[in-house]
Every structure is written in structure tokens, then in C-alpha cells.
Amino acid sequence: MMAPRGAFIVFEGLDRSGKTTQVQRLVQRLEADGRAVRLQKFPDRTTSIGRMIDSYLQTKSDLDDRAIHLLFSANRWECANAIERDLAQGVTVIADRYGFSGIAFSAAKGLPFSFCLQPDTGLPLPDSVIYLTVNPEVAASRAAYGLERYETKDIQTRVRERFDEVANEVQRRHGNIWHTIDASGSVDDVQEKVWAAVTSTLNADFPSMGRLWM
Ligand code: 2DT
A Pfam family name for this chain (predicted)? Predict the structure, then answer.
């Protein structure tokens, strides 16, 4: 009998939502549980496309809004085969950001929603999207914003609004795969909420690999 495929779980979140910490904890917990797991960070800054994105995010270079949007998408496409291969071999793949960030950030800059979706059409569809939110007051009380492009209060506010639209679109196209988790509590409390969402996905009889926006 063929091994069941791995689950594809995507994390999205606002700045200072504790996303990176939660992703690391989840990977450790799944490994401790005896699962094969691979973490895939987006943007993947290690590829040649990723290095262009990195330079843009560090404001060392400027690019047209559409051009950088397409580079972020191309960065996912260049990793898509490896994700599918791992899933087919039973590995659980955890992505730290994916195309939903791509839409939320580019739409926050004013690009049309329909344009933002288009280049990701056909990418592997996650089995579950864990979206970590914090209310603006809690975000303000956490450590200061970083120095990269987009790390300002004004942009984060607009991104938050766009993420709500993305969540609605996911629901409309793909059903109940989007889990919004309030990450205002302690790291341990949030971890338990994440774990509940993830185990419900892992225990479900997930279908054959779907395609994003199709
Ligand atoms: P990190 O701080 O998580 O490295 O993210 N971004 C990300 C986009 O604008 N489009 C995308 O498609 C993706 C994946 C979000 C770096 C920044 O890049 C933004 C924050």
C-alpha cells in the first residue's frame, strides 16, 4: 500500500504575531511525535530569485510593484516541485508564509486583487492555513518593528484589512481550510490553539492534492 501523503500546512500572520516562534515550536512538536517534517520559508531567500527579493526587502534595490509581486510568486513556483515531492513521500510540509501574504501585501500597496491572485493559480493548495492575528494594541506593546520594507504600523494596518479579504476568498473557493487564531495570549496558550488546529487537519482524511485558486 502507498504511504499516505503528508499534510501541507501554511502559516500566515501579521508582524509581531509570534509566527516564527509558533512555526518552530510546531515543527519540534511534530518531530517529537515521530513525523517527518520539512519547514519551507517564503520568501526563500537562498535562491537567485530569493536574493533579488531579499535585496528589495532590505531596500537595497527598488522594483516596480508588479515585478516584485511576480518574483514572490516565481519564488513559490521554483519550490513547488520539491513541496509536492515531499508531500507524496509522506513528509508534512510547513510553510512560513505563502501566496496569501503575497496577495495581502501587494493589494495593500494598491494592486488589483484579481491581478494578485493570478500568478499563484495552480500552486499546491494547503490542507490548512493558520493565520495568526494580534490586535493593534497588543502589537504595539510587543517589540519594535524591524527595519525591512513593510515593517511600519501604517502598512501593517492595511495588510490586516487585505488578509480579511483573502480569508473570505479562500473560504469561497476552497471551503474551511482557513483558521484564524488570536495570538494575543502567551506563547504556550497560542501553541495549544495552533496544535488543536493542526491535529484536526492531520487526523482528517485529507483529499488528493488540490490546486490553489482552481
Ligand atoms: P518575512 O519577514 O516573513 O521574511 O517576510 N511578502 C512575503 C510579500 O510581500 N509577498 C509574498 O509573496 C511573501 C511570501 C511579507 C518578508 C516580507 O515579505 C512580504 C513580509
Answer: Thymidylate_kin
**Between the CA of residue 150 and those of 58, 113, 146, 153, 164, what are the distances in Å?**
10, 18, 9, 9, 18
Q: Where are the domains of the chain?
A: 8-203
Residue 78 neighbours by CB distance under 10 Å: 14
The residues, any chain, with a CB within 8 Å of residue 187's CB and separated by 6 or more, are 18, 21, 22, 25
Q: Which residues pair with 39 in a beta bridge?
A: 94
For ligand 1, atom 20, which residue shows the shortest CA distance? Answer: 150
In this prediction, the answer to ipTM > 0.95 reads yes
Cell numbers linked to 90: 509522506
pLDDT reported for residue 15: 85
- For the chain, the average pLDDT equals 95
* CATH topology classification for 8-203: Rossmann fold (3.40.50)
CA gap 11, 13 in Å, rounded: 7
CA of 162 from ligand 1 middle (Å) equals: 14
- Model pLDDT for residues 35-53, shown as the tens digit of each residue: 999 999 999 999 999 999 9
Q: Report the pLDDT value the prediction gives residue 16, as an integer from 0 to 100.
A: 87
- Model's pTM, two decimal places? 0.96
Single-letter amino acid, residue 2: M
Query: 12: helix, coil or strand?
Result: strand
Q: What is the amino acid identity at position 209? A: M
Q: Ligand 1 centroid to 1 CA: how many Å?
A: 39
Type of residue found at 100: F
